[in-house]
Amino acid sequence: MYSIVVVPEYDMGEDDNSRPVFTFEAEEAAISGKEPERGHFKKEDYVTFVKNGDNSITWEVNPGLAGEYLLRFRYMNTNAEAIKVRLQIESSDGIMLRDDDISFPVAGVKWKILNTTTGGYINAGTYKIRLSAPDLSRLRLDKMEFQ
């Protein structure tokens, strides 16, 4: 009248599907512009620019797999207003994959995180991630995380 089925116990475990996080310090990036300055605040080194001009900071990343990636910028903006910055993602063969303006909100007393993405799928390879603006004064960049 009743059937009993015995099945061995199987533990699938807890698989962590998250991608690794690669951290790129601002002081190790390619920096160009007028009077870039390195500083130290709350146990962290940062990069900022003293004068207005054609200021930029560029990191080189090498994703191993195709996909859309998360970009996290750790920053402080000690200005009274948000700073608009141009974000560019360029492939090693010169193709511009993203060219947008992003805004760093005011964060004057502690480090904040600004999240964005690559804006679409990118393939494995070498890419340059560049932040630039005529006025980057009082924007302190600590690091960028690429996930």
Can you give a write-up of this model?
The chain is mainly beta and 147 residues long. It has one domain: Jelly Rolls. It has no helices and eleven strands. Strands 2-5-10-7-8 form a five-stranded antiparallel β-sheet, with no helix packed on it. The N and C termini lie far apart (56 Å). 23% of the residues are buried.
What is the topology, as strand order, of the major beta sheet?
2-5-10-7-8
Question: What sequence of helices (H) and strands (E) makes up the elements?
Answer: EEEEEEEEEEE
**What is the number of beta strands?**
11
* CATH class annotation: Mainly Beta
Annotated CATH topology: Jelly Rolls
Q: Largest sheet, described in full?
A: 5 strands, antiparallel
Structural classification: mainly beta
User: How far apart, in Å, are the first and last alpha carbons?
Assistant: 56 Å
What is the residue-mean pLDDT, rounded to a whole number? 88
Number of helices: 0
Rg: 21 Å
Strand content bin:
over 45%
The percentage helix is under 10%
Which stretches of 5+ consecutive residues score pLDDT under 50?
none
CATH superfamily: Galactose-binding domain-like
CATH architecture assignment? Sandwich
What is the gist of this entry?
With 147 residues, this protein is mainly beta.
Strand and helix map with partners:
Layout: E1 22-25, E2 30-32, E3 36-41, E4 44-49, E5 55-61, E6 70-77, E7 83-91, E8 96-104, E9 107-117, E10 127-133, E11 139-146
Antiparallel strand pairs: 1-11, 2-5, 3-4, 5-10, 6-9, 6-11, 7-8, 7-10
